[in-house]
């Protein structure tokens, strides 16, 4: 029982840690880049931005 509880807790923490920073850092960056992208160039800016990411 102790082993299962520890594994479950470790897995939950690992997944939460990975999802939290990625999700929190992804939306703001994409939104900020998306706003100027269409205003200047839709295709020209989209291609280099996607490659850089």
Write the layout of secondary structure elements.
Layout: H1 2-34, H2 36-40, H3 43-52
End-to-end separation in angstroms reads: 43 Å
Q: Based on Cα principal axes, name the global outline.
A: rod-shaped
Classify the secondary structure makeup into a structural class: mainly alpha
The biggest beta sheet reads: none
Number of alpha- plus pi-helical segments: 3
- H/E series: HHH
When the domains are counted, the total is: 1
What average pLDDT do the residues reach? 52
Strand content: under 5%
Number of strands: 0
Residue ranges: pLDDT <50 for 5 or more in a row? Answer: 1-7
- Estimated helix fraction: over 70%
CA-atom Rg in angstroms = 18 Å
Describe this protein with a few key phrases.
53 residues; disordered N terminus; mainly alpha; 3 helices; 91% helix; rod-shaped
């Amino acid at each position: 029982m102790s082993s299962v509880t520890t594994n479950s807790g470790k897995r939950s923490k690992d997944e939460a840690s990975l999802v939290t920073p990625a999700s929190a850092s992804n939306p703001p960056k994409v939104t900020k880049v998306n706003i100027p992208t269409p205003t200047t160039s839709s295709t020209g800016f989209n291609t280099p931005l996607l490659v850089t990411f």
